[in-house]
Amino acid sequence: MTTRFRLIQVACVWVVLIAHSPSGVNANEVVARTSGGDLRAGAAVADITPPLGELVVGGFEPFPAAVIHDKLHARCLVLDDGRTQLGFVICDSVGIPREIFDEAREEIAEQTTLLPQNVLMAATHTHSATRANTEKYRPVLVRGIVESVRLAMANLEPAKIGWSGIDEPSQVFNRRWYVSDPDLRRNPYGGVDQVRMNPVRNHPSLVKPAGPIDPEISVLSVQSSDGRPIAVLANYSLHYVGNVNKGDVSADYFGVFAERIAELLDTKSANPPFVGLLTNGTSGDINNVNFREPRSSEERYEKINLVADLVANHVKEACDNIEYNERVTLGSQHRELTLKRRKPDATTRNYIAEVLAKSDDSPTYHAQERYHGAAAQRQFEGPDEVAVPLQAFRIGNLAIAALPFEVFVEIGLELKEKTPFADTFTIELANSSEGYLPTPAQHELGGYETWLGTNRVQKDASVLIVEQVLDMFNQLAKEPAVK
Ligand SMILES: [Zn+2]
């Protein structure tokens, strides 16, 4: 079969699923490839640093990139058991729209033997990266993603693999809080929520966090058959760390981790170079701020270095104790799920119209009412549905889910609890960037991540997604593991 023909066939698989099924998913058409055998692995890195002047988008107000503090990278790991190849590409970006990932996916299919649906691409969610979809930057990003995969494929060699998890609860905090003062819970649509995102630290109105945390650092470690580290892919449910200079481009703690773990594993002179990848878990409602304590006076980048060092040291410890295997079962599943997009009701639309018609010096009910009003208006005018890509990988008795949202931690915890596999983790902002994904219970509480525009899909989307992911896991689990 020619590459071109396979590409067209595969592209159809990603798209056609939606059209044929009332629920948006047709299980019969889902491609499942599970196999097992002697492992080969390769890893590589490509530069995706944006040009200066592109807009840094992590904060509320985009700001032109003025300094490259540290370079941004696409980091790739490829696993191959002789029949199935899986690729991971982790990009230092705040979020990458689906059309950019898909453009890279098509080029990967043309230039390599990797099946496009077997490539998991994700953004780390560093807040000090620039907008992905600009005329200048988009080609840099696509080229980097494709290059990292081509180089990783060229580096494939006999390998062994192992995984484990280790807890570090001290750097993750639920950022949604019950606060006693209703004025602090106002929303931009004229109402009062039950909870507030990022309340003032150490404030007398703080009651308790509105949700849990996930303390686990998951670790997937790959070595050459003679024990040289090839790559480590870790996963932690932490939004990002931050505290960089305004206008700095930086990979945040994800980039420092990659450097630090290379040092700790003593791989600085390895050839091919060792690759550390830190993926973002389910951190839609999790950040690095201890709200019970007053703000401390850290230097810029101090906390980034501290958290990266702590996580890297845990990962090193995990790597030292992992049992490695040269034979492993690899598998992949993917689906498209069609979700309804949320729309403002008539009352909210009237309220927004009034807000947007106000003069600039009029008093406001909520500081960002205009911004969120405009976002809700765009939702109203936009399409009624969106098809989102869901993906699940199996590596032995480890399962990895890939979801295209900023996923609430409860969802990752539920998948870890209900998975049929011994170990499981989720990579967020994968294969697209579709806004926040709260649970229905968190929607009831309100707060920033549930507002129209920050959350764009139906309120029970997480229930449908968990159902689909668990079904994909169960399909993958049916294949017996290799001996
Ligand atoms: Zn964010």
UniProtKB/TrEMBL annotation:
Annotated signal peptide: 1-27
Signal as UniProt keyword: yes
Sorted UniProt keywords: Signal
Domain Neutral/alkaline non-lysosomal ceramidase N-terminal: 41-287
Pfam families assigned to the protein according to its UniProt record, in alphabetical order: Ceramidase_alk
Domain of life: Bacteria
Full protein name: Neutral/alkaline non-lysosomal ceramidase
